[in-house]
Specification:
Helix content is 52%, strand content 9%. With 396 residues, the chain is of the alpha+beta class. 18% of the residues are buried.
Length: 396
C-alpha cells in the first residue's frame, strides 16, 4: 500500500497533490478531531529527528500520527494504531515531517520569508477559530489548539513552514521547465534501440521439493500476524413480543390524571415566548449608540452591517431559555420591549447585545379539562413502557 503512494507522489499528477498535502498538514492540526485509539508517545529522548540542527519533537510526531490515523479511519473505521504502525504509517508520517522541515529550512536559507502578518492573515481564514459572531475569536483559537495538544508557537511554526513550501515549490509546479541537458537525454530515448537475450528457467529447477519447516511457518506467522486476527464478533439472543402480550390495564384513572396535572402545574400555566434579531459589540457605549440609531428608524441589519458586525435571528424562546443562552439581564430587557422595538442594551458573556424583538407568542393557561387528553396519553405511554420493562425482566 505504501509503495503505491510513493509511486503516485513521484508522478506528474501526484506531485502537486503531495505538495498540497504538505501545505495542509499544518492546517489539519486545528481542524482534526482526534478520537478513539490514538498514538500515545515515543520513547528515547525528546526528539525523533533533527533537520538542519532543528529538532522534530516527539509531541509533533504524536499529533501527526494521530491525525493520519483519523484520516485513514474515514475509509476504514476499524483501523487501530497498532495496524497503522505495522503497515508503515508511522514511518510515512515521520518522512513527511522531515520533508516539511527540510523544505522550510531550505526556503529560509535562500531568503524566503513568512512574516508574522502573513501567518496572522492565514489564521484569520480558518473557520475553526471563529466565534459566534463569525469573526476570529482568541478563546476559540486557544481552545482548538488545546484540544489537539498544540501550543501557539508550535502551530505558528507549522503554518510558517507551510507558507514557505508554497513560495518555494508552487512556482516549480505551476510552470515547470526541464533543463536542456536532461531534455536531450529523454529525447534521445525515442531513437535508442537495444538488443538482448533472455533465458526461461522453469520453477521446478529451483523450487524447494519439501514444504516449509515449523520454524519457517512460525517466523512467517509472527511477521504477518495481523492478517489472521478476526474482527470482533458478538452473539445475540432476542425474544419478540408486543403489546398484545401485556396483562395490565394501561388506562389512567381520574385521580392519576389530576395528580399529574398538579405535579406539572408549571407546564400548563400561561407563558410567553419571543424571537429576536441581535448582534454583539465589545463596549456599552457602542451598544447604546447603535441602539439609538435603530430607535431613530434605521434597520438593525443596516446598523450591524455598517458597523462591521453580522446580525442573526433566533427562534421563539421563553425567558429562562433565552437567559441561559445569553444573560439574565438581556432576557429581562427582551421581555420588557414591545414587538418591533429595539431592546435596551445588556451585557452578556460575549459582550453587549444590541437586539430587536421580532415576534411575541403568548400562550394561555390550560385547565385540567383542557389538558386531560394529553395527560391521559402520556400516562398510558408510561404505563405501557413500565409493563414492557417488567415483561423484559421476566423473559431475561
Amino acid at each position: 500500500m505504501l509503495s503505491f503512494f510513493r509511486r503516485f507522489f513521484q508522478s506528474k499528477i501526484g506531485l502537486p497533490i503531495f505538495i498540497g498535502f504538505l501545505v495542509l498538514m499544518a492546517l489539519a492540526f486545528a481542524a482534526a478531531d482526534i478520537t478513539g485509539s490514538t498514538f500515545g508517545g515515543v520513547s528515547g529522548g525528546d526528539r525523533v529527528a533533527a533537520v538542519g540542527g532543528e529538532p522534530i519533537a516527539n509531541s509533533e510526531l504524536v499529533t501527526a500520527a494521530n491525525t493520519g490515523l483519523d484520516q485513514l479511519r474515514r475509509q476504514d473505521p476499524t483501523l487501530t494504531m497498532p495496524e497503522f504502525v505495522a503497515d508503515g504509517g508511522l514511518d510515512e508520517v515521520l518522512r513527511q515531517l522531515i520533508d516539511r522541515y527540510a523544505v522550510g529550512n531550505y526556503a529560509e536559507k535562500y531568503g524566503l520569508r513568512a512574516g508574522e502578518n502573513l501567518v496572522n492573515s492565514e489564521i484569520l481564514k480558518i473557520d475553526a477559530f471563529r466565534g459566534l459572531t463569525g469573526e476570529f475569536d482568541q478563546d476559540s483559537y486557544l481552545a482548538a489548539l488545546r484540544q489537539i495538544g498544540l501550543s501557539d508557537a508550535v502551530f505558528r511554526r507549522d503554518l510558517e513552514d507551510g507558507l514557505l513550501e508554497q513560495q518555494l515549490v508552487k512556482p516549480a509546479v505551476v510552470a515547470p521547465q526541464m533543463p536542456e541537458k536532461i531534455a536531450r537525454q529523454y529525447a534521445a530515448l525515442v531513437l535508442e534501440r537495444r538488443r538482448g537475450e533472455i533465458a526461461l528457467i522453469p520453477s521446478s529447477a529451483f523450487a524447494p521439493e519439501s514444504g516449509p519447516s515449523e520454524a519457517q511457518l512460525t517466523q512467517w506467522y509472527g511477521e504477518n500476524r495481523t492478517q489472521f486476527i478476526r474482527p470482533e464478533r458478538r452473539t445475540l439472543r432476542f425474544a419478540v413480543f408486543g403489546a398484545d402480550m401485556l396483562e395490565v390495564s394501561a388506562t389512567p384513572s381520574e385521580a392519576e390524571i389530576a395528580a399529574r396535572y398538579k405535579r406539572d402545574a408549571d407546564r400548563y400555566k400561561a407563558g410567553e415566548r419571543r424571537a429576536v434579531t441581535s448582534f454583539v459589540v465589545p463596549t456599552e457605549d457602542a451598544a447604546r449608540a447603535l441602539a439609538a440609531r435603530i430607535r431613530a428608524g434605521t434597520s438593525l441589519e443596516a446598523v450591524a452591517r455598517e458597523a462591521g458586525f453580522n446580525s442573526s435571528g433566533t427562534e421563539l424562546r421563553d425567558r429562562e431559555t433565552l437567559a441561559n443562552a445569553t444573560s439574565f439581564a438581556f432576557a429581562e430587557n427582551v421581555f420588557k420591549a414591545e414587538r418591533g422595538a429595539a431592546v435596551e442594551p445588556a451585557q452578556g458573556t460575549l459582550g453587549w447585545y444590541v437586539a430587536r424583538v421580532d415576534e411575541i407568542e403568548r400562550i394561555p393557561a390550560r385547565s385540567l379539562a383542557e389538558a386531560r387528553s394529553d395527560i391521559a396519553e402520556q400516562l398510558t405511554t408510561e404505563k405501557r413502557s413500565a409493563a414492557v420493562a417488567d415483561l423484559t425482566s421476566e423473559i431475561e
